[in-house]
Amino acid sequence: MQPQNVSQHNSQSLPDDHIPPDIIRLEQLSKYYEEGGRTRAILHAVDARFAVGEFVVLLGKSGSGKSTLLNLVSGIDLPSHGTVWVNGTLLTRLSERERTLFRRRTMGFIFQAFNLIPTLTVVENVTLPLELIGQDGRESHRRAMELLDAVGLADRGNSFPDRLSGGEQQRVAIARALVHNPILVLADEPTGNLDEETSGTVLELLDTLTRRAGKNLLMATHSYEVIGRADRVFHIHDAQLMEEPLSAAGKPWPEAIAPGQLVIPENGSSVIGKGLVQ
User: Fold this and answer.
1) Is 257 exposed, middle or buried (0-12, 13-18, 19+ CB in 10 A)?
2) 8, 49, 181, 206 - which has most CB atoms within 10 Å?
3) If you average pLDDT over residues 193-222, what whole number do you get?
4) How far apart are CA 51 and CA 70, in angstroms?
């Protein structure tokens, strides 16, 4: 079984009234950079559709374009060519200010480095997205404490980030990403700074809370552990976005590969069994 170099939705053969609507649609999406007088393609002519409620994982080695794709989907960056649609809005046609306001209302972010503001308490960090969209302070505090309780940190609301462990800080970041009820959560290597046990706890929490709330999760990662939780898995290689087929058990095809075994499919991507996709 080999990766599909086609990023179409899994249910495209269903009748139209049974196909879930797209939350993200990418059309001929390309991003190029100039380096030393040469053009470097990070993403080239990418077409993809992600349906409402999906947990989608992006795999690829460092520098392959995972973070770039997240930046394009969020509107933080603009493509060299192509279009990005999010929840029916053509993001690439909005001004920078319009993209910022759209992002504040509709997206939540989780980063590898947590990105908590050290001078704010835990509850103040979590309420920040609500303050940015002008929500009432009392309601913001109630909502923040509700999320902190969900991540098991209701008793740490008045603590500052430097008093928390890495896993606790990432749990705060999850609460902050969900507090304003976004339609889309973007996670960039959310377990990259955590040990294996803490990573498992954070992934379980993130998966549970986003699914319970009916959110869409798009996660860039190196971790093979994440794949078993995903609805769809994509691999970025040579500026292309390729969907990895899932077996009947819901696992991507590399799971059958022995640990440490290197496999080179016909498309030129490489997979190391039970480890990192490169």
Assistant:
1) middle
2) 206
3) 87
4) 16
Q: How many CA atoms lie within 13 A of 103 on its CB side?
A: 19
Q: Which pTM was predicted?
A: 0.81
Write down how long the chain is. 278
Q: What is the CATH number of domain 53-78+99-272?
A: 3.40.50.300
3-state secondary structure of 221: strand
Please write down the long-range contacts of 17-21, taking CB distance under 8 Å and 24 or more positions apart: 19/51, 20/51, 20/52, 20/53, 20/54, 21/51, 21/52
Least confident window among 11-25, 66-80, 209-223: 11-25
Please check the confidence at residue 268 and state whether its pLDDT lies above 70.
no
pLDDT confidence tier of residue 107, bands split at 50, 70 and 90: very high
Token couple for 200? 């498992």
Task: Parse the chain into domains and list their residue ranges.
Answer: 53-78+99-272
Element (H, E) at 125: helix 122-132
**Closest listed residue to residue 170, CA positions, set 126, 216, 227, 224:** 126
Work out the percent of the chain whose per-residue pLDDT is above 70: 81
Residue 129 DSSP one-character state: H
- Among 133, 232, 239, which residue's Cα sits nearest to residue 181? 133
